[in-house]
Design goal:
This protein is of the alpha+beta class. 18% of the residues lie in helices and 18% in strands. The protein is built from 7 helices and 12 strands. Helix 2 crosses helix 3. The longest helix is centred in the N-terminal third of the chain and has 17 residues. The protein is globular, with a radius of gyration of 22 Å. The chain starts with 11 loop residues before the first strand and ends in a 13-residue tail after the last helix.
């Protein structure tokens, strides 16, 4: 008889959140504790299947003894912590972050942003006309003629149109907040395809394929796992994009059906998103033990075989 290793018991810590004393397991994140208490902490770059990047900073909370606000999505709980999720300092920080994001990218498809703007009094328009992300290469053009100081009331970038270069999904980087969730899903955390990554620096930073080649010439395998984690609609299935572009998007006529993918024996769960008896998107539950929200090209886009393909008119 062999001795089986015993699991190390999880240590419990005690902390205070907004005046309430709570107990949590060591290793939990502050965001987990806040959500367990029913406290609504806004998040954009956080994904429950990805390692936090701490990119968007809208989930910051105030921690007694900390010089700066801390991101609740990645900060682990510690014994004796005193956390404030709605202090004046927190509210001011979230307001400014929402204003800066809203003045530089299109957040119209980002769930929750409208209510957050109202809650924190954020007004992106106070920064002047929107300064949309520039198309790749726009900032690389040589400047000719006289050099003039930029007009502060004029956006210095040229907005890039949506990239419709394949029949499965659209890349609308005018909505991209550089949360890097798509990069992580495509990279070592899940797909290990490494078809996309961050390119450029500073104001020229953007998501791009390797060597900035067209998507159809890249290493992309069209699994669509980047779509599944995108929080802003910068990556969206073509069928959904077409519905919105045609003005036919109608959430009140939509429903979801969960089924099992028929293409192989792995047993991936599929959630079919349907409007007017047509599938416009397929996702998978992030808490599913097989997929963890990820699918292959057949699971995510194979539905085109059960209904007539949409014919593009553009």
């Amino acid at each position: 008889m062999t001795d089986e290793p015993t699991a190390t018991p999880t240590r419990t810590v005690q902390l205070t959140v907004d005046g309430t004393t709570v107990h949590a397991a060591e290793g939990d994140r502050l965001l987990d504790v806040c959500r367990a208490l029913g406290t609504d902490v806004p998040t954009l770059c956080f994904g429950d299947t990805l390692t936090p990047r701490n990119a968007c900073r809208v989930c910051v909370v105030e921690l007694d003894g900390s010089r700066t606000l801390v991101p609740s999505c990645s900060r682990p709980v510690e014994d004796g912590q005193v956390v404030h999720t709605d202090s004046e300092r927190v509210r001011h920080s979230r307001k400014l972050v929402l204003e800066l994001l809203g003045s530089s990218v299109d957040l119209s498809l980002t769930e929750g942003v409208a209510s957050w703007n109202e809650r924190y009094g954020a007004d992106p328009d106070r920064f002047g006309p929107p300064a949309e992300p520039a198309a790749a290469g726009e900032r690389d053009r040589p400047i000719t003629g006289e050099h003039h100081a930029p007009d502060p009331g004029h956006a210095a970038t040229v907005a890039q149109p949506p990239k419709v270069d394949n029949p499965l999904y659209v890349r609308d980087y005018g909505k991209c907040i550089l949360c890097f969730k798509c990069v992580d899903a495509c990279g070592e955390q899940w797909q290990n395809t490494f078809a996309i990554s961050a390119a450029g620096r500073g104001f020229d930073a953007r998501i791009a394929t390797e060597f900035d080649v067209p998507l159809t010439d890249s290493a992309c395998v069209y699994c669509g796992n980047c779509i599944a984690v995108c929080p802003t609609g910068a990556l969206v299935p073509t069928a959904e994009f077409d519905l919105r572009a045609a003005g036919n998007w109608a959430p009140e006529r939509q429903h979801e059906t969960t089924t099992v993918c028929p293409y192989c024996g792995v047993g991936c769960n599929l959630t079919l998103h349907v409007q007017d008896n047509e599938i416009f998107k397929v996702s998978s539950p992030s808490d599913h033990s097989v997929t963890h929200g990820n699918l292959c090209i057949k699971g995510r886009f194979g539905y085109v075989h059960v209904q007539p393909p949409r014919r593009r008119t553009d």
